[in-house]
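Priority: medium. Attachment 1 of 2:
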């Protein structure tokens, strides 16, 4: 199965080039890496363009969800893999996600929290801030209760889909709440979902976009709550 690796980015100068180099070592010639540069104001676009990949561009910042949707429209692979452009996900673990699809799953989530023997070593407090962890666990708990599921990481951005299943979901989110929309619509469409344990590393350059906006994390939480309620009431 050929793959499209989609990486939505906003101001990832210093991170994106080395990430593309690492991914290219892992993939085959008929696979593609698509970088969706979402109106970056630094040299992200030039840096990505110096490496083997396709670079798409939004002229202004539309949000991570909008960038993921642009990527999906342009992806040619039978598998679609999403990962962060900040170097926090490990390209070496792409195969773990793909193995889940080979086993027969439609949607494989790289979970930072699913238990395995070395759970404590998979991330540090700097890689996942305690405030993010508490927020994620609370939202994940609510999602599990409402939709009768047992997911451990509802906000993971590192994941793999069968492309045809993903393209049926009719996504609409523009920002980070897209991860929640993906999950809820996958439940509604009865996709076969599996979580596999992954590591999470610290960002090396730049800072999380959630820090840049005043009350960024709070607004993010509210948007996810709105998505959960909408999904519960209207997405059947
Ligand atoms: N296209 C696009 N990508 C974005 C936007 N904001 C963030 N991203 C990308 O999404 C990925 C993760 O962004 P971060 O802001 O680090 O968020 P996070 O890793 O989920 O959360 P932290 O744990 O706080 O770092 C990176 O590749 C970012 O460049 C945006 O507005 N548009
Ligand atoms: Mg990050």
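Attachment 2 of 2:
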């Amino acid at each position: 199965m050929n793959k499209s690796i989609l990486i939505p980015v906003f101001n990832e100068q210093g991170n994106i080039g080395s990430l593309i180099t690492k991914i290219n070592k892992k993939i085959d010639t008929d696979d593609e890496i698509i970088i969706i540069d979402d109106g970056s104001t630094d040299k992200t676009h030039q840096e990505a363009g110096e490496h083997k990949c396709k670079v798409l561009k939004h002229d202004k910042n539309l949000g991570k969800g909008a960038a993921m949707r642009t990527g999906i429209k342009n992806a040619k692979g039978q598998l679609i893999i999403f990962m962060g452009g900040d170097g926090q996900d490990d390209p070496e673990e792409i195969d773990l996600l793909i193995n889940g699809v080979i086993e027969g799953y439609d949607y494989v989530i790289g979970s930072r929290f699913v238990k395995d023997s070395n759970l404590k070593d998979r991330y540090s407090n700097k890689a996942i801030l305690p405030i993010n962890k508490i927020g994620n666990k609370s939202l994940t708990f609510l999602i599990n209760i409402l939709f009768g599921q047992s997911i451990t990481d509802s906000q993971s951005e590192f994941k793999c889909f069968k492309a045809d299943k993903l393209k049926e979901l009719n996504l609409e989110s523009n920002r980070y709440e897209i991860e929640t929309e993906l999950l809820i619509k996958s439940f509604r469409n009865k996709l076969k979902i599996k979580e596999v344990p992954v590591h999470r590393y610290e960002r090396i350059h730049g800072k999380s976009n959630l820090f840049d906006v005043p009350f960024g994390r709070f607004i993010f939480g509210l948007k996810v709550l709105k998505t959960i309620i909408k999904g519960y009431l209207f997405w059947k």
